[in-house]
Amino acid sequence: MTDPQEMLRRAGLKVTPQRLEIYEMLLQTRAHPGAQEVYEVVKEKLPSISFNTVYATLLSLQEKGLIQRLDVGQGRDRFDANTRSHVHLVCQQCGRVDDFGDSTPACISELLAEVRAKSRWKIADGTFTAYGYCPECRRAKDTEGPGR
């Protein structure tokens, strides 16, 4: 099912113009925006929307399982409409967040299975985040040369 209105309804959410615009924006990006970025994009189409409405909507979409809220160690939440378990790559220089593949690699699935089996925790899901430098930042670092 890929109809955003139907997905909102099935999650038990009323389809409002604000909720639909926010959800569609997230479905159309792979950029993992923060709440402020979502607000700025949505405000172009819905000028009267408030930041508080955007943030509350993001939290309700996350609570209903329609989006993921990510904490990748940058002091702010990021949001992702890809709710399947998958790997995130985070640039330590510019903060860019990319997905690696469409689903969790087998080795991470195996690790989660082992954690479930050997811990006394009830593990619902797990994520893996790799930190490094995106291609653009790597190029910039490489062109700086040694000693700079």
TrEMBL record:
Cofactor detail note: Binds 1 zinc ion per subunit.
Coiled coil: none
Alphabetical keyword list: DNA-binding, Metal-binding, Repressor, Transcription, Transcription regulation, Zinc
Organism: Candidatus Fermentithermobacillus carboniphilus
Entry GO MF terms: DNA-binding transcription factor activity; transcription cis-regulatory region binding; zinc ion binding
Chain sites annotated for binding Zn(2+): 91, 94, 134, 137
InterPro entries: FUR, Fur_C, WH-like_DNA-bd_sf, WH_DNA-bd_sf
Domain of life: Bacteria
One annotated GO biological process: negative regulation of DNA-templated transcription
SUPFAM superfamilies reported for this sequence: Winged helix' DNA-binding domain (SSF46785)
Cofactor(s) recorded in Swiss-Prot or TrEMBL: Zn(2+)
Transmembrane segments: none
Family per record: Belongs to the Fur family.
CDD domains on file: Fur_like (cd07153)
PANTHER family found in the cross-reference section: FERRIC UPTAKE REGULATION PROTEIN (PTHR33202:SF7), ZINC UPTAKE REGULATION PROTEIN (PTHR33202)
This protein's name: Transcriptional repressor
